[in-house]
């Protein structure tokens, strides 16, 4: 990703762990500042979600935000499956 806004920025900035005594949240916001205008942000986030990157800021989201995004997607997929099963049951009941 040569076009990435973080080219040349130390990788450690995107894996905040309170390094140097800096509070973690401040580090994450610093990294997210680069992501905000990054032309490859969608691809970066897709990569992180696809390969389950557990740590760091990717595509403008930290690990907690990505985990929440995945939880919501799983919940929505489960709700969709339930709706489809209910629809199939209703269809079977009317056919019987
Ligand atoms: S979105 Fe990804 S590639 Fe772009 S600045 Fe952020 S971490 Fe780097």
UniProtKB/TrEMBL annotation:
Cofactor detail note: Binds 1 [4Fe-4S] cluster per subunit. Following nitrosylation of the [4Fe-4S] cluster binds 1 [4Fe-8(NO)] cluster per subunit.
Keywords: 4Fe-4S, Cytoplasm, Disulfide bond, DNA-binding, Iron, Iron-sulfur, Metal-binding, Transcription, Transcription regulation
Compartments where located: Cytoplasm
Annotated positions binding [4Fe-4S] cluster: 6, 35, 38, 44
Record-level GO cellular component terms: cytoplasm
Record region (Disordered): 73-96
PANTHER family per UniProt: TRANSCRIPTIONAL REGULATOR WHID, TRANSCRIPTIONAL REGULATOR WHID-RELATED
Family: Belongs to the WhiB family.
Stated role: Acts as a transcriptional regulator. Probably redox-responsive. The apo- but not holo-form probably binds DNA.
Protein name: Transcriptional regulator WhiB
């Amino acid at each position: 990703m040569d076009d990435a806004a973080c080219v040349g920025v130390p990788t450690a900035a995107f894996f905040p762990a309170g390094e140097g005594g800096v509070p973690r949240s401040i580090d994450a916001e610093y990294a997210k500042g680069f992501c905000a205008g990054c032309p490859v942000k969608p691809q970066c986030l897709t990569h992180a979600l696809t390969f389950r990157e557990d740590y760091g800021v990717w595509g403008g989201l930290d690990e907690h935000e990505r985990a929440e995004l995945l939880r919501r997607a799983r919940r929505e997929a489960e709700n969709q499956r339930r709706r489809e099963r209910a629809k199939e049951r209703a269809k079977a009941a009317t056919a019987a």
